[in-house]
Design brief:
- About 55% of the residues lie in helices and about 10% in strands.
- It has about 260 residues and is mainly alpha-helical.
- It has 3 domains: about 1-90 and about 160-170, Rossmann fold; about 100-155, Orthogonal Bundle (Histone, subunit A); about 170-260, Helix Hairpins.
- The strands form 2 sheets. A 3-stranded parallel sheet has the order 2-1-3. The chain has a two-stranded parallel ribbon with strand order 4-5.
- Helix 11 (about 195-205) crosses helix 12 (about 220-225).
- The chain is globular.
Length: about 260
Amino acid sequence: MARRLGAEIISVDSIAVYTGWDVGSAKPTAADRAAVPHHGLDLVLPAATFNVATWLTAATTAVADCRSRGRAILFVGGTPLYLRALRDGLAELPAADETVRAELMAEAAAAGPERLHARLAEADPPAAGRIHPRDTRRLVRALEVARLTGRPLSAAQTQAPDPLFEQRLMILDVDRATLTRRIDRRVEAMFAGGLVEETAAALAAPGGIGPTAGQAAGYTEAIDLLGGRIDWAEAIRRTQARTRQLAKRQRTWLRSFRNATWIGA
């Protein structure tokens, strides 16, 4: 499609931003990148903190570059939060407060992230509905924003839409049984193809693996495998289960996008 349109590709994937994490993010191959220019890959080391605002800044720079050369653009990937930022822009949210964040992280460590999710469900049901009960990082951020602003995160995120540009959204729709089989095979191939070695290399590098990257499906389990907390079979099983949950949440997110074209695949 990129060749037919004379387009370049901007990755919309929150794991492909990490340098060295090729297997677990299914990055385009060297041949793919030689055939069509790609942007948004290998932006930071796994030790770095990375969020949607950082990605949107990188994407905006890539868009300007493509436009300056008269190139069309395809945004390709499955991180709905990034897609929403493209569509609606970002609300003005407060910077992180380390004191508040440390307090919430300590509560999650002591009582489990489900406790934070229950609190968020009472204070901000829409946000709680979009965040997995064990997604500590996003739960902490949602509660942090509510405490610092006095407003729920879901209300703040609906303010001041400022899309990067108008775009057509096409969603590839795979039936659940087929998707489940593909996920299970994909996870097995990841572990056989170097995912654990990628994780070990990142752990050994200066700074190690940051809290954002460390929550990625597959890499979390590889960390536990390397630490002796689970065995190989359990790492695969957990990753398959988490990836199926992720796919379900992605479909829920994508159904909320107006005027999207769903394509059977």
